[in-house]
Every structure is written in C-alpha cells, then in structure tokens.
Design goal:
By secondary structure, this protein is mainly α. Helix content is 59%, strand content 0%. It is rod-shaped.
Length: 71
C-alpha cells in the first residue's frame, strides 16, 4: 500500500509532466517576420525551417550569387 511520501512523489511527477506538456504545446515565435533587405514578409514555412533566416528566399539567393561572384 502506498504511503504519503509515495502519493506526494506521484503527484509531483504528474505535475512536472503536465507542466512540460503545456510548455511544449505553447506557440513559439518563429524568426524575423520581414526581410531585412527588401522588407517583404518572410513566408512562415521558411521561418519555421530556418528560424534564424533574416531574408526572404529571393534576397538570400541574390546575396549568395553576390558572394559567389566575388569569390
């Protein structure tokens, strides 16, 4: 039969599991919403895939072409 300490430990473990589940379900901000070069909105799928993206895909490609051209 469970004693008070076992019951308290079970409740604490369940409370921790519930807190973790709530934390994982909360919405998270995803990246910068607008391109730092052209100011257009960065599509949400790009921001979800690359949260650190600071440019839209077109401007990123342009920057890559410039870097390659000067290399």
């Amino acid at each position: 039969m469970a004693d008070d300490a076992d019951i308290a430990a079970d409740r604490a473990a369940q409370a921790a599991a519930d807190a973790i589940a709530r934390h994982l379900r909360r919405p998270r901000p995803v990246g910068r919403p607008t391109c730092r070069v052209c100011g257009d909105v960065i599509p949400e799928d790009r921001r979800a895939a690359l949260p650190w993206a600071r440019t839209c895909i077109d401007c990123a490609r342009g920057e890559e072409r410039e870097v390659a051209r000067h290399a």
